[in-house]
């Protein structure tokens, strides 16, 4: 990039810096800096030039440019050349001083540029700044600020210039009157002093090492005098703080004697400001600097000020630090710095001041004092060395303080003491114990408020700090190793230190490893020399038991196991290798889980296995007995930790099981029975587990000890009726019995199976039942204690499970089985049916599950009672408990349901027969709530896909049984059931599945027909074969089929049949896309009606079905499938899909055809097939004809059905869809073409229906109405005369339909009139005859062949019927039409020419000229070739001879055809004209015979006069406009 391009780019960016958006400005600056990093010099020059050229640029934008320059200079100042640097310096200096007013943003930006340049070119910058210092004049504030900043940024460069700077500034100090200027001077003097001190402290790196403090002393003192004696007295707080900030570093530069002289005034002056300022950081910082300066010169005055200093500083350190301001924390650090200075100079005075304040009860005072003590212990270690005993003894009262802030401070002091050898002194153990006590604090006692700057409130809690302190002291302070080892071991076993176990174990592990590294002798513990330490048995038991809750206390399980592994040489010498292998596996298991995912029972079993292996390795009965004794002693320690106490019982049982001394075993078991706290459920459970585990090795002794306890005085004296309340309450006795019953259950569950079967009934169950059933005076009393009931259920469950799991279970005959089942069912029935308060229900069902499996089998009635009773007990329960412990209740509810499931499974397995399955399903179906019923159904549906046919068959039976019994409550679930059923049908392979699924659909439909129809309609199109079969299942019963058909008709007509999509190309008509619901309903109708069983229902709904489907066909003509279905149609149907055409209209036609077949109208279908009517119905072009042929077939073969069909069709004339109106009108019109309308007395209704459609907006409808009315001529000709006026009015009205010159309605009217004129009354025709003739005359020359043919042929028919009274009126029209008819004999269309032949033949009689009429009859016979010239010659001869007065008019008319667009007609016109040569006037005597009887019609004279004059005759002659000529409009273009 060239320099010019850099400049252009920079100028472009700079032009954008004036954008109002701050974000844009920032982006511009960033872009400039990016360019500057690559080409710094060119960028800086561009910025300088831009500012110079844009002198009027507002200062905010100038400041932005200057800041960008500063950023470039900060990173690339070393690349500047001198010339560029000088240019930038001059620019920045000018910008900085351009205005005398304070514009801080602008001036600071310019100052920043100077400072940045000054790091490399200090001389040039200082030269420029000194140039700005004028003698006797106050300098610009920005200049002072820049000098101060340079002193900090480049002290080595500025300090040599300080004498010159000070000599210029000091004389004008007194002139500074404004506080802002004074503050600037203070800031400058502060930074000058700091720069000088940095220079003097690093003379080895200074450019001039000869500089001494004396060089600045005089000037600094002069400034000090002004600042302290004048400016410090200001009322402006900001100025006072600026003065104080400056005095601190300035004090180091004052001459020693001057400083000593000023201290008596300076120190009190600073201390006095503490009361005036809330933020005291700057005061404390300056005070610390002054004290350092005073100590450095050995000031004696400081001693006299010490008391005041200590008091002021102590009050500052006692200020609470909850403030969010960082200055508060910084002030604390500066105050502690002051204490360090005083501790080094006067340690005795300092401690004499501090230590008595530790005895105060004031929190702030004690916390602040402890902070100072901790600080001086760390910062003045040498001065405090001989003061350790005093400091330790002064901690006595703080150790007793319960305030958390004081505790935190004490812990920090103890941490400092540990690092400096205090804890090795007498009294140090108390400090260690204090730390451990704080580690044991429970989490709920920790403070909730976070400390300053702490993100986690718990991170600054007393416990958290103590834990960190203990670990750090143990791991980082080498001198503490011999103090903490093995002393920390004595804190493992006391209960009050339980919360500290995790940090204790971690510290002990580290200490033990260090000892091991030092050697075996240093690691082995001499218990004789440390009597207070716990024994190896106590440590082993303690660590093992606390590991059972591994995630409590920050993961004490892992920590305890690691310590246990490390301590193995001190526990037993044989355990090392095994523990080194096993413990890592246990730790790895914990790493794989969390507190939420850990399976507690599995974890405890792993620990017990670890203990069993340990005992097996030791294999020393004495050691094992000693361990069991120690474990028993620890039982009271866990009264507040029931889970761990429960595990301890298991450990005791495991240890006793490994002991070989039966006396020891029985002794410990007896003690456990006598000392157990039976009121606690967990302890009862733990005691029972202990006995069960012990019974694995000592079954006989365990049972014997239980019986001995029952016979013992301890137990018997509490069970008598007279002594029942003496030693223990009745409730307590029940708890003891509960524990004993549980003990027997656990013994049965854990004892060897080959031994337990022999004792199940003789010993175990006998004692269980004896303890449960109490006899008072020989009467059996049933207990009401739920705990005792639960224990009985649990024990019986364990006994039953033990029997089932035995290898001899098949041969074992359980005589008490029925009794126990009955007892369990009584417990279940006794439970409240609407609430789940205890697990008795669940446990009892689980017990029954095992009891059912053992021999002998229950009879059928008993099994049914069990199922019925359990279901009744469960189904009334609410699935969502509302109690406070809703989580536990929900868990119990789910477990109870699982127990019920297991019981039902067990019952089925015992009676796996169709009868057993049926009984169970019937009972279940009646009891299941709806939500559970649907779950069961869905499960059964899943089983339909089972590869085992028997399973899938059973599933189908169950499904239909459930639907039969409870289908009525499943209305909302019908869609889900149908969806699942369809998906399963696609997966299942069995032949029996589909019939069963059809039956399921039928059962549901009989109960929820509408829901079933709606659900099946949601099936995707095209319908697969399975869905088709499901639809057909709905037709097996006529009543249901009729209901389904009615619903489908409603669905088909509810939605719009199509939606119009916007055309892609302009000018195109919108595409019509079928809507899914009517399309689906149409397909469904086909499937339902294709079933033969649907015949009666179709007959019942014949008119509704026929009309609805006919309308459906009509409104789907030309309608497309949705795009997604079109793609499927193109890809072709898969084998699973039906092969029917999905195209909307074809689908509707097929359904209509199916409906006619199913209703018995096969002849109609066959007639339509032969005539191709169905194909016509499908197409837009042939649809109308198709509807006509359908009506014809219906009239011929299904006449009796028509009255109801017509009644249903009556309302369709108002349909919103034009196609529907067209189709129905075509259908009705064709019915009038058959005599069935008259036979069935439908004529009047048909005529009314058609009349109602005469004013329809659709031209096709109006056209078809006229066709229908005309059809009366062929269908009921004898009825035409009666309805003549109505028919003629309609036809004549059709001639005037619309503005279209070629209206198809007019064409149909002409065709209809041609059929009707012969049948109506002459009088009815007379009134409209003239109008018709005039109206059709323009059509003779129509461009459309159909119109020419129809109009000319109608003209012929009118001539045919115009005899008698009509002749005179019509003769004028005959004459007017003669020339066009003659010329159109040459029409290129044969039909037109044929019509002209007919018309001329019909005109002949009306001309009253026999010769002419004979000529017409001779030459114009149909089928005879016409020699036009000869015929024309003959005709013209007769016309000239008989009608000489009309020749002029004929010639005039003929002239118009000279411009005809038809070549033959155009050629005939001159020929016709040429034939009319003038002839001699015929003899007068013959004129009456040759002239037509003009006197017979009105206007004859006028016509004759017009003819004689050669005029055109009256206007209604219908002659074409000469301007237009004959033929189509504009046809003269071809002439």
Major sheet strand order: 1-2
Q: Beta-sheet strand percentage?
A: under 5%
- Tell me which oligomeric state these chains represent: single chain
Task: Please describe the biggest sheet, giving its number of strands, its sense, and whether it closes into a barrel.
Answer: 2 strands, antiparallel
Shape: flat
| Mean pLDDT value | 83
Q: How many beta-strand segments?
A: 4
Secondary-structure class: mainly alpha
Number of helices: 80
* Helix content bin: 55-70%
The residue ranges in which pLDDT falls below 50 over 5 or more consecutive positions are: 446-456, 720-728, 775-781, 1133-1138, 1477-1535
Distance between the termini: 81 Å
Radius of gyration: 60 Å
Question: Which short descriptors sum up this protein?
Answer:
about 1550 residues; mainly alpha; 80 helices; 4 strands
Task: Give the topology, please.
Layout: H1 3-15, H2 22-38, H3 40-53, H4 59-76, H5 82-97, H6 104-118, H7 122-131, H8 141-153, H9 155-158, H10 162-169, H11 179-201, H12 214-229, H13 237-251, H14 256-272, H15 281-296, H16 301-304, H17 306-317, H18 326-345, H19 347-354, H20 363-379, H21 381-384, H22 388-393, H23 404-419, H24 428-439, H25 462-476, H26 481-484, H27 501-518, H28 520-523, H29 536-546, H30 552-566, H31 568-571, H32 576-592, H33 600-618, H34 621-633, H35 642-658, H36 662-675, H37 681-695, H38 699-711, H39 713-716, H40 730-750, H41 753-756, H42 760-772, E1 774-776, E2 779-781, H43 786-805, H44 817-830, H45 840-853, H46 860-875, H47 886-910, H48 914-927, H49 930-943, H50 949-966, H51 974-987, H52 993-1007, H53 1009-1017, H54 1025-1033, H55 1038-1054, E3 1058-1061, E4 1071-1074, H56 1076-1089, H57 1095-1100, H58 1102-1115, H59 1123-1131, H60 1144-1158, H61 1162-1171, H62 1173-1178, H63 1183-1197, H64 1202-1209, H65 1218-1231, H66 1236-1239, H67 1243-1251, H68 1259-1275, H69 1284-1295, H70 1304-1316, H71 1322-1336, H72 1345-1361, H73 1366-1383, H74 1390-1403, H75 1410-1419, H76 1428-1442, ...
Antiparallel strand pairs: 1-2, 3-4
Helix pairs in contact: 1-2, 1-3, 2-3, 2-4, 3-4, 3-5, 4-6, 5-6, 5-7, 6-7, 6-8, 8-11, 10-12, 11-12, 11-13, 12-13, 13-15, 14-15, 15-18, 17-18, 18-19, 18-20, 20-23, 23-25, 24-25, 25-27, 27-30, 29-30, 29-34, 30-32, 32-33, 33-35, 34-35, 35-37, 36-38, 37-38, 37-40, 38-40, 40-42, 40-43, ...
